[in-house]
Amino acid sequence: MRLAKATEVSITGFRDHTVRRKKSAISFGTMAISACLNDYPSVFRRHLNSLEKDGLIECDRIVHQAMGRPTAVYRLTDAAEDLFPKKYHLLALDLLHELIQETGPDMVDVLFKRRKGTLQQKYAEQIKGKKLEDRVAVLADIQNESGYMAKWEKLESSNDEEEFIITEHNCPISHIANQYEHACNCELDLFESLLDADVKRSTCLAKGDHNCTYKIKPRLKDRSTT
Hints:
Elements: H1 2-8, H2 11-23, E1 28-29, H3 30-36, H4 41-53, E2 57-63, E3 71-76, H5 88-103, H6 106-127, H7 132-145, E4 150-154, E5 164-168, H8 174-177, H9 182-195, E6 197-203, E7 212-218, H10 220-223
Antiparallel strand pairs: 1-3, 2-3, 4-5, 5-7, 6-7
Helix pairs in contact: 3-4, 6-9
């Protein structure tokens, strides 16, 4: 009966249960975790191998015993940390609130402008020297790496004028953006600076739209020379 019960446990449920058990200990041996889960060691080891393959646990050390086979002691990897609740946005919101109380709302604007400058410096080399279409593509990749679920496309134009759209389907900092429009303004300013183009936002997740949409055209001075 115990074996049948163990084999019916889903990988997702098993993974959550095992990882939560390990979270409460510095390290855990195979037999110890198996006993906690009321599972057969042989069945448990198969699931443990799956967790190791997925990069959620890693062997910390091998313990040699007086009798029996050596025991592998495992610990959670950094990737496993993403399975546990995080409340970073609450801390950020509290800090911004305290900052406003201490220095006034203008300091929030200063912080986001400084953030825009930091991000511009970070990504400038990836975009420098490229034509506008390539800059748009690189920027979409940058946003994807940050979790914005971005895609870009080139629009058809009857007057041979370049026009592009970047659409973001997710906002990783939505809790901040929903309360501070500085975050959205920072992103718009960053896009204009990195692309060296005219950028207009037509939809915004923070305002209740289904996505954030940016329409991009060459700057007027560039259009006049083509």
